[in-house]
Write a sequence for this structure.
């Protein structure tokens, strides 16, 4: 029974090199990834690096002045914050100012143009039937021109000459994946399963009749004439005209709109009343399509009511001729895409595809997922924020951190002597891992280092040092009981391990709760505290304990040198350190007895 136990102990003591090799490999891999990504420094928050401050003013629709209220403003702040700061660590700030203004602070290093588009875009999405369309600048005759390059392509069957019950709704014009109206055009592929027989059941909001004047007759002949005049005068190649197209139109009205084709040409449209609302989209996400050449796409899943509306309108459109068998996906009065259909689409989901890159696809999916803003906003001002004050505070914080670290090292030197080498080395490893991971988290999840996050890292110095002290004291307790160093390390580790894990669990739990219940900069403090607490466990298990095992084999520590911090006499251990057979006494002299 004794021999296996000794063999097991010897085996355990021979493995510290493996743990040290593992952590060296991890550090090397993370460091290599940092240099390969080109982000060798952590991304700084707006208080440390400066950035951009955007002032948005709420604008009410005609006759809806009461819509600008506290409830809608708070809702808009939440949606904007979700768009630019979904994980809570990018340090973008969104807050109200007064009754009508919202201030958005975006740190340097963020794509400010993209962020400005995301926070300001209302993301009002409608599916409208197409009544007429042509290239902007071409003669607007009131009826579509089949020869226009923006006209839809033919629907293709799936690899057979027979009619198939599954067709894709394809499109030549499309819009931006981001809220900006300046990106390239898009092509759209609809990925819905269609019912073999067109369905016209149900009541759709829009009416895709074959005549433009019929579809635009919501307000009578005068409204029809006005709409046709707007369509004739609309020049989508002009930014001013694109901005005014559809301005003020309600979902139940016919309207005009602009969209950009995949060739980069601007197209103008007459669109019928909205048949499906953006609120009918249950979920949207960016997906990389590996089955086709579509690349990055945005998939949408409709609600139950939205699925019925979509099936109804596509069933009606399928009975019409081009272009009145098309429906336009309109995002903030701009046509994102205009696929055509040949039969009712009842699958309950749709796919927008084209020449998206990952960022554009995620941007569009993000806006659709978090919903439309309850109000429209106008960008009042955009200013650059300097980091002068934050730089001074950071300098003061770093000085305080350096002083605290120096005091910790001084205490370790005076009290633990040679053991302080292991503690300082562990602190350096922990600091290196923290730096590399923060640098990688910037481009990965948008993490930005702000002043509270720096405070969290400074607090972590004490947590990490506390773990070393617990371990060292357990080892010294074993030496006081008369054990030599190597057995003391092995017997002290299980007891120290439990204490370290419980302590770190409590710290991590506190950081997690703080992260969940707070917002803004406090989340940066909680995130950093939680991250460094996890790293403390990694460093203690894979570096501190194995290193102490190796040092216990060195004569300086094993012999209990007075500067090793493990001197049995200084620790109060009573010799002999090991139980030995006492020498037998000689015969007693009877005279002495």
């Amino acid at each position: 029974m004794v021999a296996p136990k000794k063999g097991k102990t010897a085996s355990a003591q021979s493995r510290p090199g493996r743990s040290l090799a593992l952590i060296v490999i991890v550090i090397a891999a993370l460091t290599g990834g940092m240099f390969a990504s080109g982000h060798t420094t952590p991304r700084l928050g707006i208080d440390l690096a400066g950035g951009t401050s955007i002032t948005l003013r709420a604008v009410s629709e005609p006759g809806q002045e009461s819509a600008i209220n506290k409830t809608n403003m708070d809702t808009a702040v939440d949606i904007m914050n979700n768009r630019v700061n979904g994980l809570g660590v990018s340090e973008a700030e969104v807050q109200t100012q007064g009754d009508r203004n919202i201030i958005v602070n975006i740190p340097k290093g963020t794509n400010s143009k993209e962020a400005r588009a995301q926070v300001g875009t209302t993301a009002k999405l409608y599916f409208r039937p197409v009544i007429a369309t042509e290239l902007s600048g071409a003669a607007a005759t009131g009826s579509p021109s089949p020869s226009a390059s923006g006209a839809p392509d033919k629907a293709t069957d799936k690899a057979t000459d027979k009619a198939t019950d599954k067709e894709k709704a394809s499109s030549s014009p499309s819009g931006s994946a981001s809220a900006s109206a300046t990106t390239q055009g898009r092509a759209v592929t609809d990925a819905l399963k269609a019912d073999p027989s067109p369905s016209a059941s149900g009541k759709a909001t829009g009416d895709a009749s074959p005549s433009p004047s019929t579809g635009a007759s919501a307000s009578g002949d005068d409204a029809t004439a006005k709409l046709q005049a707007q369509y004739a005068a609309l020049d989508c190649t002009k930014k001013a005209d694109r901005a005014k197209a559809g301005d003020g139109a309600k979902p139940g009205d016919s309207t005009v709109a602009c969209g950009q084709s995949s060739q980069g040409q601007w197209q103008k449209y007459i669109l019928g009343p909205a048949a499906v609302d953006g609120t009918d989209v249950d979920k949207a996400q960016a997906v990389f399509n590996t089955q086709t050449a579509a690349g990055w796409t945005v998939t949408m899943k409709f609600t139950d009511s939205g699925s019925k509306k979509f099936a109804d309108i596509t069933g009606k459109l399928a009975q019409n001729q081009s272009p009145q068998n098309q429906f336009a996906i309109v995002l903030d009065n701009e046509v994102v895409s205009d696929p055509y259909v040949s039969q009712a689409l009842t699958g309950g989901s749709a796919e927008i595809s084209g020449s998206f890159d990952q960022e554009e696809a995620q941007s569009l999916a993000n806006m659709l997922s978090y919903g439309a803003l309850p109000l429209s906003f106008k960008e009042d001002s955009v200013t650059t924020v300097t980091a002068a004050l934050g730089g001074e505070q950071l300098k003061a914080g770093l000085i305080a951190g350096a002083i605290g670290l120096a005091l910790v090292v001084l205490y370790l030197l005076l009290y633990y002597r040679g053991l302080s080498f292991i503690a300082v080395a562990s602190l350096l490893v922990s600091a290196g891992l923290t730096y590399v991971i923060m640098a990688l988290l910037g481009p990965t999840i948008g993490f930005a280092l702000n002043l509270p996050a720096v405070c969290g890292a400074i607090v972590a110095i004490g947590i990490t040092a506390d773990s070393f002290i617990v371990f060292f004291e357990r080892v010294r307790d074993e030496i006081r009981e008369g054990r030599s160093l190597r057995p003391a390390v092995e017997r002290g580790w299980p007891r120290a391990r439990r204490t370290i894990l419980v302590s770190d669990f409590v710290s991590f739990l506190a950081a997690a709760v703080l992260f969940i219940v707070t917002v803004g900069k406090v989340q940066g403090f909680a995130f950093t505290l939680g991250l460094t607490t996890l790293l403390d466990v990694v460093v203690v298990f894979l570096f501190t304990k194995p290193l102490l095992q190796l040092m216990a084999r060195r004569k300086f520590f094993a012999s209990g040198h007075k500067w090793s911090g493990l001197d049995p006499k200084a620790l109060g251990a009573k010799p002999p350190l090991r139980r030995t057979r006492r020498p037998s006494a000689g015969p007693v002299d009877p005279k002495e007895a």
User: Anything to note?
Assistant: The chain is about 45% helix and 15% strand. Residues 1-13, 138-219 have pLDDT under 50 and may be disordered. Residues 236 and 242 are 5 Å apart (CA to CA). The radius of gyration is 35 Å.
